[in-house]
Amino acid sequence: MIKIGLLGFGTVGTGVYEIINNTENNLRILLNKEIEVSKILVSDINKKRNVVVSKDILTQDPLDILENPEIDIVVEVMGGIDKAYEYMCLAFKNNKHVVTANKAVVSKYIDKLLDLANKYDRGFLFEASVGGGIPIIKPLKQSARINNISNVRGILNGTTNFILTKMCDENLSFDEALNIAQELGYAEADPTDDIEGYDVKRKLAILSSIAFNNKTDVDSIMCRGISSINKVDIKMFKKLGLVSKLVGSAVSNDNNYSASVEPILLNENSTFTTVKDAFNIVSITGNVIGELQFYGQGAGKNPTANAVVSDIFDIVTGQYKRDDFVQNGKLISADIDLFKGRYYIRVSPSNKNDVSKILKLMDLDKLKYEILSMNEDLIVITDVINADKIEQFVSKLNILEKEYCYMRIEGDIMNLKYEAK
Ligand SMILES: NC(=O)C1=CN([C@@H]2O[C@H](COP(=O)(O)OP(=O)(O)OC[C@H]3O[C@@H](n4cnc5c(N)ncnc54)[C@H](OP(=O)(O)O)[C@@H]3O)[C@@H](O)[C@H]2O)C=CC1
Ligand SMILES: N[C@@H](CC=O)C(=O)O
């Protein structure tokens, strides 16, 4: 009998519980072993839950799981950083395998957790931490063994992709779309992590740590989210034949790497723009394999729980490997021309007389631009510039973040639908 201790019984935890207890699936037959969830850690044992579960297996004491000699595998799906890390460390020290969906902890402590797993000769798997239900960690590890990977890029957050899709296709406001994403269980406990791009930053750090065989420091990743995009922007993107996506990219070039998370504007025919709702896509490029793309549901109960259970499966069947990467790195943060391009800028000053001041500021900064709209909002597209130039300009605007939005336009925009002026 394999006994599982679940740390957390929210969206993902209940999904894992249901898959394991679903007698119709053939998990037990495939494993040739009995498997059960024998204890579940929650923060409030009396909370009303949508899942039927015996109160006896719920606990508020983590030691009921971490120091329980009968438990073989600890599944951490509670979120947060410090407590989750502390519990995972204790689980290894008590000779338990660990499976987690927690990208915040994995991105920060991947090296330490792998060391502990190796020290205690236990499995440490985190497939669900990136891309929800998409199998990406395992194939990436396999590809990185044979290839030099030069590029990892993706739409890595279900919540923000859902918001952008609903704003574009159903004309919902940002807040309306975010509320639905929260109701559907896609968003993090604090959705700021989603909308400001921190969640993508963490996922990208995990992917690039594996791809480039070195630990990527989450804080070295330049990051901007989508919170300033509004209905005016979406309307203009449509006129221009462009679609906004929050994209994470990491590029490795000899011993340098550069990584960023930014909202970008893509041609409406590009592969990434076909990725809608909470779906994610990850593209990796290796010197032997070329480009590989992985696509699927990036958030939500069942897809994520599926990834967690497939890790449990690999541990029970011994199909996990010792991972020795993320040590002794040579990579340094480098300024590769990732952010060069034409930029869409919208400024909506509360005082409309400020528009002429803003145009003067652009001229002073020697920004070359084409005006698309000057009515309620000033909207321009710049010539090709570097991100630092735009950041310099924006920092002088001296207005609230909600009052402006800028995004790099990717690729050839000669065929923009909209004729300026
Ligand atoms: N939701 C998703 O689509 C995805 C989530 N993830 C990751 O999976 C993890 C879990 O996410 P999700 O299921 O959405 O989170 P939820 O907020 O839905 O659930 C969290 C669960 O953990 C319990 N919990 C939280 N903190 C503590 C604590 N300190 N002590 C004891 N119990 C605690 C809560 O208890 P109680 O029920 O009593 O409140 C709850 O059962 C996160 O790391 C998230 O980033 C990864 C991929 C997708
Ligand atoms: N909040 C995350 C959940 C999955 O990782 C997302 O929206 O992608």
TrEMBL record:
Occurrences of domain Aspartate/homoserine dehydrogenase NAD-binding (ranges): 8-127
PROSITE patterns: HOMOSER_DHGENASE (PS01042)
Example of a GO MF term: homoserine dehydrogenase activity
EC number: 1.1.1.3
Pathway the protein acts in: Amino-acid biosynthesis; L-threonine biosynthesis; L-threonine from L-aspartate: step 3/5; Amino-acid biosynthesis; L-methionine biosynthesis via de novo pathway; L-homoserine from L-aspartate: step 3/3
Signal sequence, start to end: none
Reactions listed under catalytic activity: L-homoserine + NADP(+) = L-aspartate 4-semialdehyde + NADPH + H(+)
Record's keyword annotation contains rRNA processing: no
Highest taxon in the source lineage: Bacteria
Keywords: Amino-acid biosynthesis, Methionine biosynthesis, NADP, Oxidoreductase, Threonine biosynthesis
Ranges for domain Homoserine dehydrogenase catalytic: 135-312
InterPro entries: Asp/hSer_DH_NAD-bd, HDH, HDH_cat, HDH_CS, NAD(P)-bd_dom_sf
Family according to the record: Belongs to the homoserine dehydrogenase family.
Name by which UniProt lists this protein: Homoserine dehydrogenase
Species whose genome carries this gene: Tepidibacter hydrothermalis
